[in-house]
């Protein structure tokens, strides 16, 4: 018999930016998302006593661990509820209230949440647990992003670095969009082998979380899921941070521009004619074709 211990680590990134469109329209949606997230997190822990959990909140000014945290609460059993479930729920709610108080105290708010920063924190946390795991322990890690923010091309390079780092680390990225299609995060799910879903109805958020994102990646191929979306693999230009169909690529640093420039603004290389190589961005995989 094998003495290997299998641990499934789930890191949930919850976008709590108060200027998200659906939250501005109905503030109770954030409470509904939090309730569903906590139930989903507890369901993950119920699957095995070895499973681990982390929760990160992100907004337009940064990201913070809600659980685990240094000042986590120690709770005794309440009404027959498993102590760990109670501790996680109260800790997450208490820490989130602190985060929201910090957000509302800031004068400047914008609609761009720092999801890439939260993803970076999650990968660093996974790397630390990989170093600290005991002999014979096998750690399977995945990240779930729950957000209603817009797709942000300004974080394009950060996203690409994160996606390929996660792929190399064997970390699965799942994304649950509450409002609209997210092109860049779709690419991350496709690159890492995760699931992407735009929730059709917010009232059924918990059901979608349990159906699409609760099963471990190694059993998902045996389940029936919604058909995968077509991934838009267009790149974002470095000059305007917008997705483009045709652009120019610097042959030195591979920066992408929507218009020709004799000098690369990233590495400051001076080009001789014809300059950077123009490429056409396809909306599917293997998206680079040389345009003669």
From TrEMBL:
Pfam name, any one: Tfb4
Record has Transcription as a keyword: yes
Annotated GO CC locations: transcription factor TFIIH core complex; transcription factor TFIIH holo complex
Domain of life: Eukaryota
Known partners and oligomeric status: Part of a TFIID-containing RNA polymerase II pre-initiation complex that is composed of TBP and at least GTF2A1, GTF2A2, GTF2E1, GTF2E2, GTF2F1, GTF2H2, GTF2H3, GTF2H4, GTF2H5, GTF2B, TCEA1, ERCC2, ERCC3, TAF1, TAF2, TAF3, TAF4, TAF5, TAF6, TAF7, TAF8, TAF9, TAF10, TAF11, TAF12 and TAF13. Component of the 7-subunit TFIIH core complex composed of XPB/ERCC3, XPD/ERCC2, GTF2H1, GTF2H2, GTF2H3, GTF2H4 and GTF2H5, which is active in NER.
InterPro entries with a match to the protein in the record: TFIIH_Tfb4/GTF2H3 (IPR004600), vWFA_dom_sf (IPR036465)
Name of the protein: General transcription factor IIH subunit 3
Entries under PANTHER family matching the protein: GENERAL TRANSCRIPTION FACTOR IIH SUBUNIT 3, TRANSCRIPTION INITIATION FACTOR IIH TFIIH , POLYPEPTIDE 3-RELATED
Naturally occurring in which organism (per UniProt): Apis mellifera
Subcellular location(s) per record: Nucleus
GO biological process, one term: nucleotide-excision repair
Entry keywords, A to Z: DNA damage, DNA repair, Metal-binding, Nucleus, Transcription, Transcription regulation, Zinc, Zinc-finger
Family assignment from sequence similarity: Belongs to the TFB4 family.
GO MF term set: zinc ion binding
Principal localisation: nucleus
Role: Component of the general transcription and DNA repair factor IIH (TFIIH) core complex, which is involved in general and transcription-coupled nucleotide excision repair (NER) of damaged DNA and, when complexed to CAK, in RNA transcription by RNA polymerase II. In NER, TFIIH acts by opening DNA around the lesion to allow the excision of the damaged oligonucleotide and its replacement by a new DNA fragment. In transcription, TFIIH has an essential role in transcription initiation.
